[in-house]
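Task: fold both queries, return C-alpha cells.
Query 1:
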Amino acid sequence: MKLLHLVLFLLLGAVVAPAASTSHATFTTKPITVTGGRYVLDFQVFWFSDDFPGNSAPGRVELVDAGGNLTGAAGGSIYLDGGPQAWGGPGTVTVLEGLAHRHGTGGAVADGTLNARWDITGLGDGAYTLRFFSYTTEELGQAASTVWTTTLDAGGGSPPTNNAPNIAWVSAPAGADHGQGYYIAARGHDADGNLAQVQVWKHGQPFAYAGGGDGTQSDAGNWTSDAGPQTVTFTAQAFDADGAASAIISHTVAIGAPPPVFFQLTTLAGPGGSVSPGGQFAAGTTTLVTASPEPAYEFAGWSGGAAGTANPAGVLMDGPRTVQANFVLRQFALITGVSGIGSVTPGGTYPYGTLVTLAATANATSRFAGWAGDSTGSEPVTLVLMTGPRSIQALFEPKTAQTISFPHPGDRPSGSLPFLLEATTSSGLPVNFAVLDGPAVLLGNQLQITGPGLVTVQASQPGDGYYLPAPPVVRSFNAIAPVSLRYSGAGRTLLHEQAGGSPTHLVLETP
C-alpha cells in the first residue's frame, strides 16, 4: 500500500499554476461479470495537493450495464473533523479505513486515504463495466494550486460465502393449565449479519413473526392460551436475506384438563312467537331450545349462538350463549282461475293479513257473471283478505245474440216532410241509424230527404254487457222527384147542329 501511495504521489506531483478554478475528470474502466445478482467491490480513494486546499472532488466509482446505462455509483470523502464518509447504491457502501494526513482550509484533507467496500445487490446477471474516476482541481488565489483525487480498484468478485442462520427456543414451557396464558418465543441468530426473519407456527398455522432485527439476532414470540386436555405443537425456523434457512425446531406444550364449568344460556324471541327459557348448563353439554310461533307467524330460523331452521335446535354449551328465535308473518298462496272466456288478476304468495285486489275482465263475447270459491259477489273487482290459502274463480257467461227488425221504408217523394225510421231489436235495446249513401240526413231518428236519388240507410245495435252486437240491417229506397204533365192538342172541327131549338156541338178530330 505504501508503494502504491508513493507511485501515485510521484505521478501526480507536478503542479501547473491554474488560470482559474477548474476541475477535470478522467476515468479508467474494468469489465466485470455479475452472477447471482450480487458483486462486492473494494475501492480506494487518494487525495494529494500542493498545500492547504479549499476543496476537492470526492472519490467516485460508477457501474454501467452492457447498454451503457448508468446502473449505480459509489464514492467517499474524508475530513479531519467529520471523519470518513461513504455513499452509494444499489446495495450498501461501508468505510473500511480512513486516514487524513494534513488539515486543509475549512476542514478539507490535503493528503488522505479512504478504503471502502461497495456491496452491490439487486443486479441482473450479465456483463457490466466499472468506471474509476480521477479529478484534478486547480484553484486560483489559494495557497494551494492543485488537488488530485484518484479512485482505484482494490479488488472485487463473488460475494462471500453465506452461512445459514441458527434457531433456538428462548421461551417454551412444558405445560399450561386449561385456559392459562403462556408465552412461546424462538430466537434466530446469523453470524454473517444477514438475518432476515424468524417465524413460529402453532399446529402448522402462523403464530409469531419477527424481522431480521440487527441482522445478527432477532426473537419472534407471542402469548397464547388453549383449552385442555390436549397437546399443542409449535415449530420455528429462521431465514437470511439470501434465502438460506435454519433447521426447523419443534416444541410441544401439554394443556391440562379444565375444572367443571357452567355457562349461561340466554334465549330471546323476536316478534311473532316465543322460545323456551335458558339457564345454567354444564360446559360441553348440548341443550335443546324450542321456538313457538303465534298463529299468524311461522318460525324463520335461529340467530346468535344457534343457526339454521331446525326446531327444536341443539346448542353446544362451550361458552356463554345467547340464542334468538326469529319469526316472520306466514305466507299464503292465492290461486286464481276463470270459467268461461275472460281473464282475472294472477295469484301469488302473500303475507298474513294482506288485502289483495282481484279484477275480472270479460272479452268482447262474454260477460262477468260473478265469483266462486273463496270470494262471492257480482262486481268485477273484489278484495281478498289473506288469512289463509285462497282459491278464487272468475265466472264468465256468453253474451246473448240479438237481431234487428227494420221494415223497408218504401220510396218517398223527394220533397216530402221528415219521416220517422222505425226498427226494433230482439233484445229491446235501442237501434242506431246511419245514412250510408244518398240525398238524405238524419234528424234524430227522423230522415229528411234532401233531393232525388237512391238513399241507403243502416240500422245497428252495438250490444251491452248482456247482448252481442246485432248484425246491421241496410235498407235502400228511391227519393222520387215531382212529375209535371203537359198536353198539346191536335187540330179539330167544331160542328154545330141546331135542332129542336137546342144547339148540338160535335167535335171532329182531324187525323
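Query 1 returned. Query 2:
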Amino acid sequence: MTETDIREFRKSNWRFVVSISGGGSAFISDYLALPGGSATFLEALVPYSQDATDAFLGFRPESYCSEKTARLLASQAFRRAVELDAKARERGEVAETPLVGIGVSASLASDRPKKGAHRVYCAIRTSNVVFSATLRLTKDARTRAREERLAADFVMSGLLFATSRVQRGAIEPWREHKAALPLATELELLPDDDASISWAALDEPGAKLIADAPTSEFAALRRFHGKTDRIRANDGSEKELSGDERQFVQQAARAIYPGSFNPPHEAHAEIARLASRRLGLPVELEISARNVDKPPVDALELTRRLEKLEQVMPDLPVWISNAPRYVEKAAIFPQTTFVMGTDTILRLANPKYEGNSTERRDAVLDRLRELGASFCVFARKIKGEIVSEERLFQETPEKLRELCDFVPQDEFLNDVSSSAIRKNARLS
C-alpha cells in the first residue's frame, strides 16, 4: 500500500468502518499514517480473540478464519458505518456520502506450526454489493511481519477494486462475478501466491429487502433465472412488476417449502416432488434473508444459493423473504401449506421461541390458523434418531397437530443434513 493508493481512494469520498480479526491490522496504521484520514476513516474494530469475535458478531461462527466470517465482519462494520454516518449528518457535520464496511479474517505465520494454508479473507460491503476477496500465501515462506504487510496491501487492493467497480456501475444483479485481484504491493510475490475476488449485487427491491428495515416496502421478491418479475408486499397482496407499473394479481392457495438450502441437495428435491404430489399443488421454495437462530444472509450468499437451487431444482420458483418466523411467512403467504421436517415442527411447538411462554406460543398458533396456514411434515432424523410419533404427540399441542399432515416415514425419511455437507466440504 503506497501513499498514492491511499490518496486515490480518498478522492472517491467513500467513508468506512473496518473490522479485522486474525491479521491485517497494518492496514489501519498505514492508512492513518497519511494525514487527513478522519475524512474517510470512521472507526477500526479489532475483535482478535474468539470470544471478542463471538461478541462482535453476536454468535459463534462455524469457522473463525473463512470467507463467510469475513463477510459477516464486513456486514457488522457496514451497520456501524451507517450508525456513525447518521449521527454525523444529524449534526450537519457531513454531507451524504457512500459508505463501506470492511471485514478481514486471516490465518498468518505464528509461533506455532499451522495446519492449514496461510490465507487472508477480505470482504467489502456497500449498500447493495458484497465483495469477497481471498489471498493465499505460500506457506512458511515469509515472516509474520512480511505476511502482515502483504495482508494490509491486499485489503487496500480489494477496497480500491470494489469502490471503483461500484462507481462504474452496471453490475448485473443476482449473479456472482469473479476476477483475479491485482495486488498493489512493493513486496515480491511468489509463484504460489494467489489473490482473487468475487462479488454480487442485489437489484433495488432486493437491496431494500436485505436492509433490515422493518418498515421496508418489500417483504419478499421472486426470482426466475436472474430476473425479478414479481414481489409480495407487506399487506399480503401480490404485485406484478412491468417497468414502474404495479398491478394486483389474484391470490391462490399455494405450497411453499421454506429453508436455508445451504446447500440444497437431492433430499430437498425429493421432498418437493412428494409434497407436490401429496398436496396437488406446485411447490415453491422460500429463503429468508433474516433468520431466528442464524446470521442474516448477504447478497453474495443469496446469489450462490440461488445458483445452486437452479442446478438441483431448476423448475421450482424461489421466493426471497424477510420473514424468519412462520407467523411472518403466513402473513405474506396466506392460505399456504408450508412443507417442513419434523425438526422444524418441534421448534414451532417449542415455547422457547416465544419467550418461554406457552400462552404466546398458542397465540401464534391461533394466528397461523386465522391466516389459513397448514403444514406438510416429513420425517427426518434429529441427532441420528428418527423422531417418533410418540414424541411428536407429546411435544406438539393439539392445536398445532390439527394444522399438520404428517407424512409417514415409510414414504420418505430425510436423513441428509446440509450442515453435515458443509462440514465435510470444509474438511475435504
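Both queries returned. Flag for query 2: The CA atoms of residues 201 and 390 lie 47 Å apart.
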